[in-house]
Every structure is written in structure tokens, then in C-alpha cells.
Amino acid sequence: MNNKNSSLKILYIFLLGFFYLIYNYIIPIGSGMAIYSAGVFMFICLGLYLSDNMKFDIPHYRVNKFFVTIFINLFFFMMWLILTWDFWIIPMFFMFTATQAVLSIYLIKITFKRIKTTVYGSGEMKRRVLSSLIRKKEYEFVNIDDLERIEEFVKENRISYMILAKLHLTEEEIERILKIRMNGVEVKSYFDYMQEETYKIDVELISNEWLLYGYGFKILHSPVQNRIKRIFDISMAVVIGILTSPIMVIAAIIVRLESPGPIIYSQARVGEHNKEFNVHKFRSMRNDAEKDGAKWAMKNDPRVTKFGNFMRKTRIDELPQLLNVLKGEMSFIGPRPERMVFIKDLEKVIPYYNLRHLVKPGLTGWAQVMYPYGASVEDAKRKLEYDLYYIKHHSIGLDIAIMFMTLKTVVFGKGR
Fold first, then answer.
1. pTM over 0.85
2. Which of 39, 195, 284, 375 is the most buried (most CB within 10 A)?
């Protein structure tokens, strides 16, 4: 599903760009406008992405989506008009906005369809699959009443998708399900479904055997992929460091004025291969926050200062970690580094928790953009499921996607 959505977004941008070029050609906008025009198009596409306005996995086009599109277009076309005072930009705005609406309606109409789906199995695995299916509008779930009549059931209900919520199948079950698959029904294992649809790996249900035979995990053994990731890290750290340097200067001044104590807070965290290093952050808590010992951070933590709360929501407090990235102690994207005092306790109760230390920790990560803020053992377990997905499926494309999702978090202040 993730690949389908990504492909649709790329197709949408391509088609939008095609019509945009045509409009630039047929509307007599003044010469020397190419840079302005390209900039407007790129910023509009970015705005549509950040506002979740590039979604096609919905039953119908929503009116509020159209109003958001109008607002984004109006803002950037107005900026273009103010800079150039070329009034041909106005008809360009109306034509482009209408095109966006028509393309969105068309893509939704030709791609969205209800898929008749059933789940073979029982217990906790089936419960988790059903919990996921309920949130997916494209699936029409049909429950199996009699497992002995599975072949007849599939034909009678025109099932086209089956999820296996059972770890070990009998020979008879394998033969039946294989026959169903050969007749055109798409069959997915529990783990494949959960990874593709929920983008995480259930730590309670995996095993050493699954880790041994599972595909992916290229980041653990590919020198080329790791070199590319390192170049990406250094490039992003330098660029973002330069762009955010004024913000960091202002943040440092406010931290100094708001409460006594150091501007930069350094703390030992566990990194790749369980090696400790000092992570750097703008101090967001009172200087005496841990006078009674290490504690989990919590929602609405009373130890956090007013500006510290703002920095946490916008991730400004993490910016000094760009130095950790340049030093090679952290990556730009990866599991968030944790403290040894908490790790020792978490490893006792969460299976495979140590796997997150097979890669460098990150300034931001898949768990941070996919899971809401939480500070408990259960939250640590849920975040580990996303971290394992990231380690298993790592690619530069996924890193770039996480960057954009982090930008969305920063823009709308949804950080912790």
C-alpha cells in the first residue's frame, strides 16, 4: 500500500507538472519568469504534501481538500504576483487550481476500490489484523465462519485478498490455501501484511528463525549503502546547520535568559554497537530536573520550561545534535538514542530491544514520525516495532520520506 500511495503521488506531481508547463507556454506571462514559476510549483507541491493533500486512498474527493488547495495556491501565486506584477498570473492561478481538483478526482476514481478481504486464523494475530483493517477504507472485511469450507467461502463471497493470521499451517491447510492462491486470490502472511500496511514489526511474534531468514537488513552488511548514508548525513547536517543557524542563536539567547544553567545540555546515550557517547541538546528543562535521579520524560512534564516545551514541539532542542552527526556518532535518520539506565531495564522486558543498537541512532527516525509521544515501557515497545521496520527496510528513499514527515511535524508543532 505504501508503494501504491508513493507511486500515485509521483504520478500526480508528474501530471500536474505537465499541465503547469503547458499553461506557462499558452499564457503570455512575461519573459524571465522561469525561476519564479518553477519555485511556485515546487513550493505548492511541498505545501500539498505537508498538508496531507496528496492522498488518494479515500472513497471520494473531499470539499475541505479543495479549500486547502485553494489556500496554498493563492498564497504562492500572490507572492509571485507581488514580486512581478504580471496580471497574467491570475488566470494561471484559476486554471492550475481547477486542474488540481480534476486530477485528484480522476486519480481517486480510477484507483480507489473496495477489496473483499478475509483473515484466516484466530487469536491475538487475527485481532491485530482486524484492528488494522478497520482503519483502512479500501478493505471490505468478510469473516470466515467455517474454516473447513474455506474454498467454497472464497468463491461464494468473491474474496480477492486473504491474510494468514497463523504462524504454522498444517499440510492440509497449505494445500487448500495454495489452491486458492493459484485461482487468483492474493495471499499474504501476517508479517508481510503488518509490514506493508502498518509499517512496523511485532516484536512479540518474531523469532530468531524469522530474523535468520527474513529479507532486508541491508544496512547491516552493505558498505556501499552505508557510505551513501554517511554522505547523506554530512550533506544534510551542513545544509540544515547553515539554514538554522539564526534559529539556534535565538534559541541559545532565550534559554540563557529564561532559567539559570547551561545553554547546551550534554548527556550520555547509547549508540551503535552499545557504545556510549555524549548527545548535545538545547536545555529544555530546569537545571535541577534530575536532582532525584534519572526519570522518564512525561507528557506535560513540570520540569520542562515554557520555551523548552516550544523547542520540544518544534524539535529545535535537537539541533545541536547536528554536531553528533558530523562527528559520526549519530546518523541524520535512525532510532533515537536512549540512556543506559533505561536500556538495561527495557532489555529485560522487551524482546529484541538490543537490535536497535545495530545501527547509528538518529536525529529523527521512523518511530518518531509514526508514533505519538509516550514515555513508558509499552511506548518503548511500540517504538521498537517501527525502529525494526526501519532497520529492515532502510533505503535513502525512506530516509528522505522521514525527512519530509519530520518537516511536517516541525511545521505543525507535533513533536514531543
1. no
2. 284
